[in-house]
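FW: tagging you since you asked about this chain on Friday. Here's the raw sequence from the shared folder, copied in full. Didn't touch anything.
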Amino acid sequence: MTPTFVAISTLHSGISDLAVSAESEGFGMVRRLVDDYIADVNRFSKRGECLCIALHGDHVIAIGGINVDPYHDSSSLGRIRHLYVSPDFRRDGVGRRLMELIEGHGRKRFETFQLFTESLAASRFYEALSYVPVHDRWKVSHTKRVGA
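HL: got it, structure written out here
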């Protein structure tokens, strides 16, 4: 079965299982995403923002989104947020295809994408997608200029 990639406007019930998977690896980003969404802190609803998932049948196997960067005062900066792919679906192109969907939405609004990761594996993944490491910006580890 081929995964399906979609932008969503409400949380899918299967995201809680994905949050548990992420937490078992020591990653809290999916739980933060769910908590912030429920608390109406971040619903990925501003202009240019989106939240996307990958589904394998009814199971959420990956999630990620893009926001107006909350750490920098520029509406032209999009921040890639909370990207996580279930371990069973890594190295199969799921992360890349999810990023294509997220970036496709973001290109309509943002000139530059930014993100922060401390993970070497994640750094390598983003660099394979043409993100450039940076060392002089607060809360930014990688950036990619895309034009709006």
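FW: Residues 25 and 87 are 9 Å apart (CA to CA).
HL: agreed, and The helical segments are 15-24, 29-38, 94-106, 120-128.
FW: great, closing this out.
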